[in-house]
Amino acid sequence: MGKLLNYRNCAMLMMELELQVVKFEVGGDIHVNSIATDLVTGNIRASYVLSAGHFFTKTLNSLIRSRDESVTVLTTPQYKPGIQNLEDLVESNLSIIASPCFEEFYFSRAETSNNIYSKIKNQMQFISLSYYEMGKLLNYRNCAMLMMELELQVVKFEVGGDIHVNSIATDLVTGNIRASYVLSAGHFFTKTLNSLIRSIDESDACVSKSINQMFNEDDTLAFIYDEYMEIEVPKIMKRPYVIARCIGPTRSKLDRSAAYIVHLLKQELLNNTLTFLRLSSFWIHKQSPNGRYLVIINENHSQDIQKIFTFFWNLKIHKVVVITQHNHDHQIHTSNPYDKKNYCGAYANIIRSQYCNGNFTINILKNYTDINKCGITFLTFDDNNYGLKAFFEDFFNTLAKKTNGEFIKNTTVTSKTEVISIMMQPIIVTSIATDSSPHIKEFDYSNTVMVNKIVIIVKAGDTVSPVKILFVIFRTEVWIMIILSIGITSLSLWLISSIDKQQFSISKFGKTWLDVLLATIWGYFVLVPRNIKARYIIISYLVYQIHIQTGFTSNLVTVLTTPQYKPGIQNLEDLVESNLSIIASPCFEEFYFSRAETSNNIYSKIKNQMQFISLSYYEMGKLLNYRNCAMLMMELELQVVKFEVGGDIHVNSIATDLVTGNIRASYVLSAGHFFTKTFNSLIRSIDESDINKCSITFLTSPDENNYGIKEFFEDFFNTLANKTNGEFIKNTTVISRTEGISTMMQPIIFTSIATDSSPYIKEYDFSNTVIVNKIVIVVKAGDTISPVKTLFVIFRTEVWIMIIVSIGITSLSLWLISSIDKQQFSISKFGKTWLDVLLATIWGYFVLVPRNIKARYIIISYLVYQIHIQTGFTSNLVTVLTTPQYKPGIQNLEDLVESNLSIIASRCFEEFYFSRVEETSNNIYSKIKNQMRFIDLSYIERAKLLNYRNCAMLMMELELQVVKFEVGADIHVNSIATDLVTGNIRVSCVLSAGHFFTKTLNSFIRSRDESEREEEQKQH
Predict the structure, then answer these.
(1) Cα–Cα distance between 61 and 766 in angstroms, integer?
(2) How far apart are CA 226 and CA 304, in angstroms?
(3) Over 254-270, what HEC string results?
(4) Which residue ranges run through the membrane (predicted)?
(5) What are the CA-CA distances from residue 893 to residues 34, 824, 1015 (Å)?
(6) Which of 387-391, 714-718, 721-725, 978-982 has maximum average pLDDT?
(7) Distance between CA 8 and CA 24 in Å, rounded?
């Protein structure tokens, strides 16, 4: 697009933001007019995209809503309330199906004054059905059913899915059911049975209360029984649960919570039962070690409770509660491995016991803020890991201080008896190392410690020789033009002087050449000839000399103070062209260069240049100094390389984000480690370091990275991260599901065509509008104005006329005063006076000041006027000399319609903006539509068309930056707003549907917009 706009006379339809991309792609500014297309296309509304159901969606939308109060309702499925109570049920006159046993117990008595009862009774139909048949009827028939509350769970289980139903209490009609055992009247065993039931009730109440205190309401409980224990489940269970006995296989998997109730006949069966659990499908590798365990032992007088706790602690399981029985009394036991007398979990000397028949409380540690001098081991495997030894030591000393622990350094594999063992591991979050990576599944990872960029290091360009440095001030062409101007001026003055004196002397030409050269350097001539023609040449040359001196002085300081080097290899494209070998550690091959070649041509070429060799940092430094090669390494490693070779290496560092992304360094603990939550909490609390932030990742595809508004998105997400105590992570590849919060940018077109019926709307959560991205038509701008005409750009034509008139009037006035005084009128004298005034206009002084008072007043007034001229001239001169001047070209939609240029646009624009029937009343829209040509082109193809074809392009404003970047040059184009035809695109953040962060993000966006509006009001 950029090339086309620069070299072809055409227009382009694009989004307003695309124009910035086009400019960026061609590596410079394109002089274009932007024509609004609102009338033809409307606008695009861009949103951020998250995976479906993402927890961050709600927060993100809330933050965006707080900015502009434009609320988009994209939530969970909404249902009508339906029948909510007995009154609604009576009014509906639905048949109520129930088992025949209900008729005998509840509906066999005569009708009473209770009107509800009689009406419900009239609606009853008593039929014997299986639970499966009940489920089918509820799903496919409009009816009601009377059943026990627990039976509803059985019905849902039988039909293998969730039934969307309302449950209506019938206490007013039926009361509740109390189930009892039945014996013959006066049976001898009744008293004993009741005593046992009371004991069971106490046990049931103890277990139920413990469950309520230990587990969340939405936890799925796993009841694990030893091979001898009868199945016992609390009478009232509000939570979903699964049951397993250690002699049978398990097929179900727990994927949301790790909540276990281990029921044992006696304590000796604990080891076998826990071994079964750890090998079963109920065990969640990364959650179960940090799960909650309620151990119930039916054995009376269990003596060795300490062994139960130490058994779990040795497995790194700390959240354990034990219920034991003593006679008919039940006790609750808890213990903290970090109590001082428990010696870091080696012994369970301190156990807190409470009776169940009282008001007991269960306190389970969430964060370990005091570990009583227990050890925290950091395992590096290398005594000088990553050259950041001091950084890690400082971090862990701070961690130990905050937790009252003791930091232990270790470079070898630690004993399994270590209480807390942590190691540093760089985790590569790319499309290669995702959740399928064995690293992700085997360990717990802390919050990000640091973001370490991956770069390619190449030897920089050689030093530019001192002789060549002078030519850096101006391009070679400029030096040639300066020398030619000196030669031509010298020749002209020499010829005029020689003709006047009728004498041609070569030595005289040499002297004239030196005079012109001195005038070029110092700005004046030693002797000014009397010849009028020569004086005009001198004045013209001195004006030209001002231009030379302005450019020379502005560049001289930079050239003299900054060492000059040849550019060398600056980017991935240069590196590919150089065909240098790129040396890297073998670990990079596994993570970044093991996948099949993709459509990314840069990636495939870089991969072909890679050589994977294990080298020490010292060897890397030597190779960079003495071999012509490149190296792939982490940015921090470059500091280590420089340190190892004992000096500064002059190299260029090339970002590899497009190929590799960045490395996120995290601390690693064993999967499900009890200390992970505490560790992350402490990392967040250490504000002095940069490793305390949860990640907020902004995901774009590599081809759409930057979008010319890189700075905007970085600023937006950095502000969001500060507000939520997070850390902004940029990424261009598919990220791991272990990311805390992931967002991506997606341009979503909200028009009358793309409404809620769009599949995007159903799959993602969209934040409030972040920015409005204009759609523009890009056309090649006007041709460059010739250098002769450029001089007149300094002032408008009217100003130049006034300056010439003022010179003429002043010259005439001074000549008349002088002539009247001397009683002599001479035309040649008038010419000399004119030259004196012209010189005074340029240099600000008169060579000779007349004695006449009137003439002196005129001279003083003119010199004051000259100050104004010089001020305006000087202030505009640099701009005119440095900024190319162009003709206006096509500026608006009306000009574009008159030009009848073809307007090229992506096919997606046709669907959204140009598929409706032409509106005859909207003349602009219909004419623009007739000029449209819908072709899918790459950014580089668009740039070439704009440069070499006379056409226009419709695109987003940001896309123009991409087009400019792609062609690596400046495209001179006009950007035409299309608001009248297309409207604008509204950009939003996109999160997965139902994301927890959506509300927070929208709240942040609203607050940001409010603060911007307040700032604007203050300025006004």
Answers:
(1) 6
(2) 19
(3) CCCCCEEEEEECCHHHH
(4) 478-497, 509-527, 799-818, 830-848
(5) 9, 65, 34
(6) 978-982
(7) 18
| Closest of 571, 597, 595 to residue 655, by C-alpha | 571
CATH class belonging to 195-355 = alpha beta
Question: 239 near 211, Cβ under 8 Å?
Answer: yes
Best mean pLDDT range from 545-549, 596-600, 801-805: 801-805
> What would you measure as the largest C-alpha separation in the chain, in angstroms?
158
pLDDT digits (tens, 9 = 90+) for 374-426: 877 766 544 444 444 555 676 677 777 877 888 776 655 444 334 455 544 44
Please report, as a single letter, which amino acid is at residue 475.
Answer: R
The percentage of the chain sitting over the pLDDT mark of 70, rounded to a whole number, equals: 65
- What's the per-residue H, E or C state across 691-720? CCCEEEEEECCHHHCCCCCHHHHHHHHHHH
Please report the pLDDT score of residue 293 as a whole number.
94
> Residue 973 phi/psi, 5° resolution?
-135, 165
Tally of CB atoms within 10 A around 798:
8
Helix (H) or strand (E) holding 453: strand 443-459
Kindly write down the DSSP assignment for every residue of 387-435, as one continuous string.
G-HHHHHHHHHHHHHHHT-EEEEESSPPPTT-SEEEEEEEEE-SSSSST
**Alpha carbon 309 to its chain's center:** 46
Nearest to 328 by CA among 192, 235, 195, 180: 195
Can you tell me the distance from the alpha carbon of 658 to that of 705, in angstroms, rounded to the nearest whole number? Answer: 8
Encoded tokens for 108: 């066999």
Residues 6+ apart with CB under 8 A from 630: 456, 457, 458, 569, 575, 580, 581, 582, 583, 609
What distance in Å separates the CA atoms of residue 837 and residue 803, rounded to the nearest whole number? Answer: 11
Give 312-348 as a 3 state SS string: HHHCCCCCEEEEEEECCEEEEEECCCCCHHHCCCCCC
> What DSSP element (H or E) covers 959?
helix 959-966
* Residue 321, both tokens: 């509660």
Q: What is the spatial distance between Cα 617 and Cα 623, in angstroms, rounded to a whole number?
A: 10
The neighbour count for residue 219, using CB atoms within 10 Å, is: 19
In the structure encoding, which two tokens stand for residue 793, read together? 């750009």
DSSP-derived letter for residue 292 is E
Nearest to 312 by CA among 286, 339, 348: 348
C-alpha 148 chain-centroid distance:
52
**pTM metric for this prediction:** 0.41
CB-CB contact of 582 with 631 (8 Å): yes
Q: For residue 943, what are its two tokens?
A: 């740039």
CA distance 670 to 679: 13
**Domain extents for the chain?**
1-77+706-784+890-1020, 86-165, 195-355, 474-550, 787-882
Cβ atoms of residues 203 and 233 within 8 Å:
no
Q: Residue 186, by phi and psi: left (phi above 0), alpha (psi -120 to 50) or beta?
A: left
966 close to 30: Cβ distance less than 8 angstroms: no
- The span from the CA of 119 to the CA of 172, in Å, is 13
Q: Cα(311)–Cα(198) distance, rounded to whole angstroms?
A: 32
d(CA 202, CA 198): 6
d(CA 623, CA 721): 41
- The full length of the chain comes to 1020
| Site of tokens 């003791």 | 406
Cβ proximity of 15 and 773 under 8 Å: yes
CA distance 960 to 943: 9
**799-808 long-range contacts, Cβ below 8 Å, gap at least 24?**
799/872, 803/841, 803/869, 806/862, 806/865, 807/834, 807/837, 807/838, 807/841, 808/834
For residues 706 and 740, is the Cβ–Cβ distance under 8 A? no
